[in-house]
Amino acid sequence: MNKKLLDLKCSQCSSFFKPFEVLYNCPKCGGVLETIYDYKEIEGNFKGEDLWRYSEFLPTTNRSNLLVGSTPLYKSKSLKKELGIEEIWIKDDTKNPTGSLKDRASAVVAVLAKELGYRTVACASTGNAASSLAGISAAEGLESYIFAPRSMSLPKLVQLQVFNARILKINASYDECFELCNKITERYGWYNRNTAYNPYTLDGKKTVTFEIAEQLDWKVPDLVVVPVGDGCIISSVWKGFRELKEVGIIDELPRLIGVQAEGCKPLKDAFDRNKEKPEVTTPKTLAESIAVGEARNGLMALRDVRESKGKFVSVSDNEMLDAVKLLASSTGIFGELAGVASIAAIKKEVIDGNLDREDRIVALITGSGLKDIEVTSKLLDRVQTIEPREKEICERIEEIRKR
Ligand SMILES: Cc1ncc(COP(=O)(O)O)c(C=O)c1O
Ligand SMILES: [Zn+2]
Fold first, then answer.
1. Ligand 1 site, residue 368, Cβ cutoff 6 A
2. Which of 64, 124, 283, 308 is buried most deeply by CB count within 10 Å?
3. Which residues contact residue 240 at a Cβ distance below 8 angstroms, ignoring those fewer than 6 apart?
4. Residues near 15 by Cβ (< 8 Å), separated by ≥ 6?
């Protein structure tokens, strides 16, 4: 355990609890709990090559077996040109061991589970958190139970299988799987990794901010753009910046843009209508990782985006597909639809004249396109096969050259 972890504070009713006396949400009001560290004692003495470099800000100082975090931050000249903005940085979190940012949370939860004496962990997820928990658990020697919704993509299911997770594929939506997971996990006494339920997932994910800030030599960007489903990643990004400011490592905070799918945007709607609480909607988007009708971390995400003086933007499935191609063809990074919603939003904001082109912008790429092949391929043209004859090959080359 990290002795610098002092308290858990409820994001809704502001009650305080002692860490590990309460494991999940606020016993008084059900709100999501946030960790509070002894910031005066944090020295900012960052050592090591992975996210454990920032273990002063994590609940445990033990390390995971897989290397999680330390993902690249690229300054992209080609995207800068394509989008017509001064400075754009791409945080490529597809480079985590199972291909998504979720590994940051799974690593912290799995290492903590072992320290707390659990042998089994569980979660429900649209896909990435599940395959992530399965992979990290395999590396840590833990058993994992995964509540998989009917919509889970084949690559993510295959990941669960090869990682030897105990798969409970349920004929239900992610929102329903979430509730079932909480009930059944309690019944069996497993450790629950569910997002907006286990307070330490926020801590794992906030390490993406520490890396961004450090990679930028602690010069805070103007704007950070984040794909949003439940709203945990965006709140984690904000927690990271707030904590760095609290310990005096940075003295400014960025604005945040949260990006939702046009067909599933409860947080954008609540934000635009100045509401504190999002409504529950039925998702209609192919971007399955952000197809979340009941945003579990909605209150906190709305609070944080407002505090940052940012906003929410929504993008269509086609805009996300264009962004997959734009990012991949100009940088060599292949993200999944949800994972590149950030790029789609930046493009849209530039076209709509809503972005200051001088801003230093960071776009989070949250998940690998290789995990979402079926969906992406549905939106792409079919590749035609040609006969193995020189004449036909040359004809095809001429055709390609004309495009
Ligand atoms: C690739 C990807 N991007 C974005 C998100 C959204 O994160 P959150 O639900 O914390 O808002 C997810 C969540 O599953 C994801 O897998
Ligand atoms: Zn509370």
1. no
2. 124
3. 206, 207, 208, 209, 210, 213
4. 9, 26, 28, 29
228 C-alpha to ligand 1 centroid (Å): 6
pLDDT digits over 319-373, tens only? 999 999 999 999 999 999 999 999 999 999 999 999 998 999 999 999 999 998 9
DSSP category for residue 314 = E
Query: Residue type for 110, please?
Result: A
Number of domains in the chain: 1
Residue 58 lies in a domain: no
Range of lowest pLDDT (77-81, 184-188, 241-245): 77-81
Angle at 232 between CA 307 and CA 141, to 5 degrees: 145
Going from the C-alpha of 53 to that of each of 87, 207, 281, the distances in angstroms are: 27, 9, 39
Q: Give the domain range for residue 359.
A: 73-99+201-378
Distance 218 CA to ligand 2 centre (A): 34
- Whether 53 is covered by a domain: the verdict is no
Is the C-alpha dihedral spanning 357, 359, 365, 366 positive or negative? Answer: negative
Q: Considering the domain boundaries, does residue 120 fall inside one?
A: no
**Ligand 1 atom at shortest distance from the alpha carbon of 129:** 14
